[in-house]
């Protein structure tokens, strides 16, 4: 045995063989990455255009020819190629897309009801029904089984005395969709002052107009009249017995005013018809339902007429007029008419709105309007709302929005006065508020008004503000700190802390006194900048970012702009943007000229022939972000919708190397449309 082992050892030691033999091969060269797909090229069909003395050629204007069947077939083919190209380019981001989609879906607001709004004895609200596409409009008595009432579930409860549900369904929009070809879109909705009828207009997509209907809320049935087509405005009169409405012509110009007696078999009565092609008619009722105001306006004049709501057939009285187009709103309070307008003063244009008043009785020849507030360039009145006992004012101090109230009636016979002389009571708002929007506030006799407070670093807060004592309650707000929707009831107020709303007995969430607004400033920052434009005008720029994720000169950015129609740029918190902020993105908002919030001149300096100012303002803000290392170079994207889409597209055409991507929500970017816009 020993001899055998020695022999074997010698054999393998003399002729060693590796257990794994090396193969002889040449190392392969690394394969180059696949070439990126080529973007599709749409066919060119040159067409010539002329506008404002300029001529140009557009090879892609055929894309907007919706009635050309051949062009639309070519468009379908091209869009399929675009979709395949996008899928190929984005194929390596499928996991990221799925993750982002899951994140954003988890933050959807699942409020099944709007917070109920009290008007007289009723609480009105809209709520969703399981498995149905459209909501239902409902109401319930505020005094019935009050212990069940909550903002989150206003339909809860049962009337054991009558054996019926507490909730009354007023209008099911799913049934309205069946009436109008599977689509339900409501433009106007007004409950009569006696709470007996509901007048509303629904869009008829087959005929492209809004159709008026009136529903009897006591029986849940449609009234035989009034029913009208092409309705643009409605207003109740005679305590709900009469309905005034305005219809448009085939060019969608409001030009006729009718009065209909609800339940009557008589034909509706024509109160006004304006044949002038450039004159538009608009109506609204005062909050106390004593008058209906009729506004007629054109590019060269504005007039306001008054109709006695108790006798709508008694005629119209002219109460105010000016020689230019102006925004005008008239309210009535205890024998005085109040006019909120931006019309010229003594022939001189003004930059902001102001409030006038006049006794309701004088004849037109003796009527005199006096200013309520003295001019104050530091404190601008942006909006007003009346109740029987108080006047609510949304004011702006530089770029800071505030909400305050003063007691009514106002002193008379003393001329105009400064707001501080009336000892206004201010609602303690969070920082970085960018917009305050008044709610419907139908109840003229109530001192409580509803407002929505918006901020780039706080989910919208719907607030009930008691003007008489300064107490306020957050009746609805999404709580993103827990990544789910909860209805919050604020307990803090300027008058006292710890008070509960009578509607907050269910699902109440106590809010820490150090953060009663549930904002997100602990996690996200909001900074304001002043950016000089090409002509030296300073453009406000707002940026939002994560305190923990933002890195200097390394952050990608998204720049939002609109600059049209005198509208305030929407800077509200958006849940979907949280996914970008948490990945280090910077979200920026450029308040370019043409938009609102900074006076009439700011709007006019960015419209029509001055539209180039909006584009230059936007480009200067984009360069500011890159030059100051707020956003990394080559990582800036543009974002705009509607007229803002035109703005961003024009900026990219002017400076294509400044932007890497764009999010555009706009139906057309044709050169002829961009040349004709009056935004």
From TrEMBL:
Biased composition (Pro residues): 29-41
GO biological process, one term: proteolysis
EC annotation from Swiss-Prot or TrEMBL: 3.4.21.-
Annotated SUPFAM superfamilies: alpha/beta-Hydrolases (SSF53474), Peptidase/esterase 'gauge' domain (SSF50993)
Domain of life the protein comes from: Eukaryota
Residue ranges of domain Peptidase S9A N-terminal in the record: 44-478
GO molecular function: serine-type endopeptidase activity
UniProt-listed Pfam families: Peptidase_S9 (PF00326), Peptidase_S9_N (PF02897)
Occurrences of domain Peptidase S9 prolyl oligopeptidase catalytic (ranges): 575-665
Region (Disordered): 17-52
Swiss-Prot/TrEMBL keywords: Hydrolase, Protease, Serine protease
Record's function text: Serine peptidase whose precise substrate specificity remains unclear. Does not cleave peptides after a arginine or lysine residue. Regulates trans-Golgi network morphology and sorting by regulating the membrane binding of the AP-1 complex. May play a role in the regulation of synaptic vesicle exocytosis.
Family: Belongs to the peptidase S9A family.
Descriptive protein name: Prolyl endopeptidase
